[in-house]
């Protein structure tokens, strides 16, 4: 036992940088409420809506397309939207449209890129930042012709 005035060193203080420090309930509540203040209520509602929709949607069947293609195309989509200054809403609408289409139609790896490009083109029409087919062709280095993009859009 230690005296009241002395510091007791029974156990070594071994704190690791990789072990999270436990916080009391008050501190955790304050941190969460501070984070919520920084996020607008509209964005919170939008994220809540997307989570609900995600649970309702069937999983996309991408068994024919190679498994590494979708993440690469999603990464391309985010970079493209940043380059074109598109809203995040368009990104999520594009991904929703791609997932809905791929759950209903079996696609191969060549068509998956066309589906992403066409979905981005279609979703951008609903915003004030609509992009032209020629711009979409430039984004994919003219891999797809205008009639391919329009034809895919009509098949939705």
Task: Provide the structure class.
Answer: mainly alpha
Distance between the termini: 77 Å
Helix content: 55-70%
Main sheet attributes: strand count, strand direction, barrel closure: none
The CATH superfamily of the largest domain is known as Cyclin-like
Helix and strand run: HHHHHHH
On the 0-100 scale, what is the average pLDDT?
73
Number of helices: 7
User: Strand-residue fraction?
Assistant: under 5%
Query: How many structural domains does the protein architecture include?
Result: 2
Shape: globular
CATH class of the largest domain: Mainly Alpha
CATH topology tier name of the largest domain? Cyclin A, domain 1
How many DSSP E strands?
0
Second-tier CATH architecture of the largest domain: Orthogonal Bundle
How much is the radius of gyration in Å? 24 Å
Low-confidence stretches: 5-24
Protein name: Cyclin, putative
Pfam family, one: Cyclin_N
Organism: Entamoeba histolytica KU27
Task: Name the descriptors.
7 helices, 156 residues, single chain, 0% strand, mainly alpha, Cyclin A, domain 1, Cyclin
